[in-house]
Amino acid sequence: MKIETISLQGTTEWNEDALVYHERLHLYGVLDGATSMHPYRGPNKETGGYLASRLIQSYLESLEEKDIPEDSLKPLVLQANALLRRTMLEAGIDVINKASLWTSGLALVRVQDSYIDFAQVGDCMITALYKDGSVRTLSRDQVAHIDFISKSILEEGIRQGITKREQLVELARPVILGNKAKMNTPDGYSVLSGEPELADFIEYGRINRIQLKALLLVTDGLFPQAAPEAKANKTYDAMGDLTLQIADQSLAGYADKLILLEREDKDCLRYPRFKVSDDKTGIWIQFE
To answer: pTM above the 0.90 mark?
Structure first.
């Protein structure tokens, strides 16, 4: 088994992503923390998103063989979520107010000889590449429908002639705040937030390793930057495209090209988005 990893800070103050690499248990994952709308800073000025992803990373990497359930990774995710809630309470966070919560997405796998267990929350994604070149997306971007609305506002602002990213983001801020109220609800999206309701929205399962060539786990900062017209094409398979590019170029090679593309669009006009460059974390597992 050959494993390549990256975790690159974007253009914000902290890298709110984190990487889970527990070689002894063959437990691997990516985490994407998100800062609360009500700003909180830790003892070293850390954001809530940073604290959430690092707390969950530390918990998962501390596990022993006896801690791992035989049939599902779901209990581990719930235990991490409960730990996050306890930590927020200790920090004085109002855990009833969704806008105050520290949150994180997650994609997690455990590699066994004959099968792969997986769990996913939010918009962290998992794909499987097979020996015949086909790509199977194991997870669903549960934030996509939320992002579609907020990014549509950015696109409309661009059409109206706004050329500064900061002004475009301000246009979408009320929608972003409203989205927080939908965390872990049927109309919203799943996220590790300390809320017990997460138990109903974790996606998890098991696939076998027959003809399996590789696994890819990524945070959304590594998603391809497709122009709106490409995204409007219903046949466009972003995750399949991403997986094949990484298989061809390596994880680091793909990330370098994506970062260059983002730098050439620093006002976020060609590829409407909220940050010039988001944090980028990925794990590329090749089975030899």
So the answer is: yes
